[in-house]
Amino acid sequence: MTATTTNGGADGLGLGKDLTGLQHLTRDQIEGILDTAEPFKEISERRIKKVPVLRGKTIVNLFLEPSTRTRISFEFAEKRLSADTVNIASSGSSVEKGESLVDTARNLEAMRIDMVVIRHGSSGAAQFLADRIPSNVINAGDGPHEHPTQALLDLLTIRDRFGSIAGRRVCIVGDVRHSRVARSDIWGLLRCGAEVAVCGPKTLIPMGIEELGVTVISRVEEAIEWAEVLYVLRLQLERMDAGFVPSLREYNRVFGVSRARLERAPEDIAVLHPGPMNRGVEIDSDVADGPWSLILPQVTNGVAVRMAVLYLLAGGSPERAESAKEARE
Ligand code: CP
Questions:
Q1: Going by fewer Cβ within 10 Å, which terminus of the chain is more open, N or C?
Q2: Hey, whose CA ends up nearest to atom 4 of ligand 1?
Q3: Is the pLDDT of residue 7 over 70?
């Protein structure tokens, strides 16, 4: 979070101008965002899914890396709050001609925007932008660094399922090394009092991760025995500059989350995945579509969480969220 409060910042949670990560948020701030998301869930169930909460605000979705869920979820959240939105991708924009991130943003600012939602391939890109423009900046994933709204929707989904996050045993399985989702989830889960473990090939577990307060489990069978929540990650082949696993088939044999493995779980285990999934590699279809899966509820919660973040950064307060959602045009 930056200290600047040029735009918004009067959110009642002390979030400041931007949401660039969860690392520096307090438990009260994280839980305050989740509480704010609760009343917004219902808006997406209405026949007319629209409230005038952000009427007159202009939001730019600047996605310079591919995305399905996050981009569309932000766009739905913005439209359901009545904001005016513009989508920019690197393909077809002047980024392709070599324009810098700051120049792109300054030109957008010159058109009098209020918020930027940014996905970028480089760690720190969201903070870099947040430090240079007065608009609110929301990080929609910056390289392998953080993906705060993904972690918030994950926390909300765990809270919905178990009633609380504190004390839950959550194991993140897969390519932790290259995952911004893992990083944000670890910060958020630990801050909210969960026990966190990671499991995967040694090559894909960052050295020294235990120093964060995370346990390393080497076998997926052991992870399934320990965890109440299994958070499955895909292999991020696009970020790998070397052979981190012998083959995808070998990875599935040793670390794949399968029905056979889950049926040996001692308790009712919940399976989450941020998507996109590689079925038959890190997760089998029987699991992704089976009774353990909370993967689609995660996606549904993503819209409410993003509505909450947009509302709070625009100056809304958690206490007023209930009445804000009842406002009519
Ligand atoms: N979970 C997630 O970030 O998915 P997308 O890459 O499709 O946005």
A1: C
A2: 69
A3: no
H/E run at residue 39? helix 27-41
What does the pLDDT look like over 235-264, one tens digit per residue?
987 877 767 888 899 999 999 999 999 998
Domain harbouring 240, CATH code: 3.40.50.1370
- Residue closest via CA to ligand 1's atom 3 equals 70
Considering only CA atoms, which of 20, 300, 324, 306 is closest in space to residue 142?
A: 20
- Prior bond to 276 cis, omega within 30? yes
CA of 141 to the centre of ligand 1 (A): 8
Ligand 1: centre distance to CA 69 (Å)? 5
Question: Rounded CA gap, 31 and 308, in Å?
Answer: 12
Helix (H) or strand (E) holding 86: strand 84-89
Q: Are residues 185 and 274 in the same domain?
A: yes
**How far away, in angstroms, is 245 Cα from ligand 1 center?**
23
Residue in 65, 145, 150, 238 to alter for ligand 1 test, most ligand atoms within 8 A of Cβ: 150
